[in-house]
Amino acid sequence: MSLELFFILAAVTFVAAFIQGALGIGFALIVAPIVGMLKPDLLPVTLLLLMLPLNLHVAVRERDHIDWSGARWITMGRFAGTFAGLWLLAALSLGQLDLAVGIFTVVAAGAALVAPPFTPNRTSALGVGLFTGITETATGIGGPPLALLYQHAKAPVLRATVALCFLVGEVMSLVVLAISGRVGSEQLLAALYLTPAVLLGSAVSRLAHHRIGGRGLRIGVLSFAIVSGLFLIVR
Predict the structure, then answer these.
(1) In Å, how far are 51, 103, 149, 173, 208 from 47, measured between CA atoms?
(2) Per the structure, how many domains does the chain have?
(3) Which tens digits make up the pLDDT trace of 5-42?
(4) From CA 52, how far away is CA 69, in angstroms rounded?
(5) Structural domain span for residue 165
(6) Is residue 68's pLDDT more than 90?
């Protein structure tokens, strides 16, 4: 990784970690399209590794607000989806993965913008977990379906539950990817270099998360994600 690329990715990672820490969604939507444009071979492993400390911090910070019942059903679906995501990753070339990241970004962010209110239940939690397992294992993007499920819950419930589900799911995906030989030294080093930016962004979000209502910034994050995803698709 060149020094110029490192500084670009570190800046993007810092901003994305701050937004994820404040809202509960946004890290992968921001980072994945940028990495897809500049260094696609880092996906999805580096992205998954970077999200581990971020989601651990948010889950611990707001552990009193976790929806444990929903998290259990999401995790069950996520486990099954992880293997389907691995198959999808094996079936795609780097160029096709680039396209897949763009498509998943646009579809997921668009759905998060326009979805009507609904109450989460066991079936929807299982379905969201399954879909998240597929998309996050293949592309590193899994936040919007979880945010959709909890978008009308209180902000601490969304942040805490999504962070916990991410954390457990990312460990699942990384174990499966490692067993299949898809975790390389370059991806590990990139994650190591960028981790300080994640920790700093997450720490700064602690000062602001209780002051952010979420709607305006959430729309901005999702709109940015759609533009970035469309760029990947067109390219």
Answers:
(1) 6, 17, 22, 11, 24
(2) 1
(3) 999 999 999 999 998 888 777 898 889 889 988 999 99
(4) 22
(5) 3-234
(6) yes
